[in-house]
Design a protein that fits this description.
The protein has 417 residues and is α+β, with helices and mostly antiparallel strands. Helices cover 56% and strands 21% of the residues. It is elongated, with a radius of gyration of 32 Å.
Length: 417
Amino acid sequence: MIFSAFEWLVAIRYLRSRRKEGFVSVIAGFSLTGIALGVATLIIVMSVMNGFRAELLGRILGLNGHINVSSAFDKGVANYISFGDKISELGGVVKVTPLVEGQAMASVRGEARGAVVRGIEPRDLMQHNILAENIKKGSLTMFRGGRDALVGARFASLYGLEPGDQFSLVAPGGRSTVFGTVPRTKRFRVRAIFEIGMYEYDSSFIYIPLRTSRELFNYKPGEISSLEVMLNEPERISVLQKEIQSLTKTPLRILDWQVANASFFNALKVERNVMFLILTLIILVASFNIISGLIMLVKDKGRDIAILRTMGVSRGSIGRIFLLSGMSVGVLGTLSGLVLGLAFSLNIETIRKWIEGLSGTELFSAEIYFLSKLPAEVNPTEVVLVATVTLGISFIASFYPAWRAARLNPVEALRYE
C-alpha cells in the first residue's frame, strides 16, 4: 500500500477540530465546501450545455432534415419526383421530402405577423415523427389537402386559434390583373396544432398542402422550392453532397445542417468551453485554501513533526501524512460535488418549476432560450474529466505543504521548547 495505517491515523487526527487548531479545521471545511460547489457547478453547467445542444440538434434536424437541395438560380426544382427517386436510391438516404417554402403574412381577425410557410404532401407530413408525435390539438388525419393547415402552439395561442378556426396567408408579390397588382391571398382552416418545444418553430411555422403552397407562392405545376433529404448517418453529408450533384447536370444549391446552423452550434461550443475554464477557477480558489490551511497546520504541528522524526518516522512518511490531509479534503469535496451535481442535473426541470412557483418569476423564457423546458444531459466522460481535474488540483495543492513538512529540521523545531 502507498499509505500505511499509521499515516492514515495521524492524517485524520490532524484534520479533526480541536480547540487549539480549530481555525485550521474551519479552513479545511471551507476548502471542502468550495471544491464541492465547484465540481457541482461544473457538472450542472456542462450537463445543461449538453442538453441544449442535444435538444436543439434533435429538433432542428428532425424538422429540417440533414441536406436541403434547391436550384442554384433561385427558381423552382422541376421534375422533382424522378430526381427525388434517384436521391432515395443513394446509400444512407432514409427519406426525401419535396417542399415549397416561403415567407408569408399570416392574418387573423385583423392582426398580422410574418410566418414561415411550408408546403408538404399529407403523407410526408405523417412521416415527420417530430410533428406527428407532438400534436397537442386536432389530428393529422384531418390534414388531407386543399385549404387545411397545421400551426404551432404559440402561434395558435397568440391569436386564440383552435382546430376548425380560419386564418389567411398573404404571399409576397402579387398577380397582375387589369386592375393592377393584387396580393395572392388564401384562406386556411386549422386542422391540428403542434408543439415541439422550440419557440421559433412553435410561433412561426405553418404547414399547408404542397399543391396549395405552389399556387400561393406562384410556382409552376410540377415545381417545388427544394428537396429535404434525411440520412441515417448525418456525418456522411460531404459524401452525399457530391453524389447528389452527380445525378444531374443542372447546378444545385446543396445546404447541409452543419453549414446552415454553423454559427449557432459554434457559439454553443465556445460558450461551453469558456464556462468550463471559468468555473474551474472556483476549484482553483478552493485549492489555495487547501495550501493555506496545510501550511498553517504544518506550522502548528512543528513540534509534533520533530518528535515523530526523533522517534524514527521517515521524511517520506511525514510528507505522506500531510499529503493525505490535503488529498482527503479534495476527495471528500469531489465526491460531495459529484453527488450534488448529478442529483441537481437529473432533476433540474423539477427544481426549476419549484423555484418558479416559489418566487413567482419565470426563470427560463422560451422566447430567449428557444426551448420551452430546461434540458440537461449528463456525459459520463465529462464527469470523469471534472473529477480527475479536481483531484489533480488537490494533489498539486497538497504537495508543497507536505514537502515543507518533510523538510522540517527537528533540531530547529525543538530548540526553544
